Amino acid sequence: MRLGLDIGGTKIDAVALGGDDAVLSRVRVATGFGSDAVVRNAHEAAIQAAEAAGASAAALTSVGIGIPGVVDARAGVVRHAVNLGLEELALGRVLSERLGASVRVENDVNAASLGAYHLLGLTASMAYLNLGTGVAAGFVSDGDVWRGARGTAGEIGHIPIDPHGIRCACGQIGCLETVAGGGWVARKWGGDAAFPVLEVFDRADAGDERALALRSELIGGAAAGVRILILTADVETVVIGGGIANLGERLLDRVRANLDELALGSQFLSSLELSSRVRLVPPGSPVAAVGAALAGDIENAPVDA
Fold first, then answer.
1. CATH fold of 121-280, please?
2. pTM above 0.70, yes or no
3. CA distance 32 to 75
4. pLDDT value at position 60?
């Protein structure tokens, strides 16, 4: 039995996979803040997921973890996960000692990429466009995650696309993230809605001009992300995931329409058939946790100290 943990800013989503890659159990616990809390709650999530699958931690053959921040997958170390209160944590080694199983730590978007690739039954090449609080991407080719020379492949959220845009947290002007990131949409929209992007879409449907403008900007940014991924890596499929993907067809239909409209003015873009190469993650599926479990199984050996 393999375990996958998706450690997010507020919750840990944990799944246990059987030998046929079927999800045997799924549990969620609060993440906490700081090294001690994250380790304690990740350990608890692992135990609960194993028990919910009718087994004990001793039955685990491997554990994979998807977590935000700068991840050294070989050493099992995560750095600069600011939203979790982690400056540097040897998470792989610590949890391996507690669980008695090999533990592999992976960047959360890379884990989600692998999970989406698996759950959608894809082959060849895929890019996972994560539209959440921020914007990032992951690449999978023939079932393997591609990280790049220094582990930063897919940081497309910080590609400037609007020289007259606003300053991004990274210091550049007009980054893709400032257009298509949920956090930036929420700042521009204001208010106290629990799900600002959803409110923007609802208000736009009702004809609110400011909401219509923000929605159009977000859709244009998401379509730009798709174009960037296909034009730079020529992946066969772009899968949109992250919190904004929960909008479902309300998002996908508009992104496809935007891509088709752009193709009308460019024979080159038309030849690429962009809109037909875009998909959404399966609704409600634990793609990041499943991907983490699969990542943990790829190198089923003790992590480096």
1. Nucleotidyltransferase; domain 5 (3.30.420)
2. yes
3. 23
4. 86
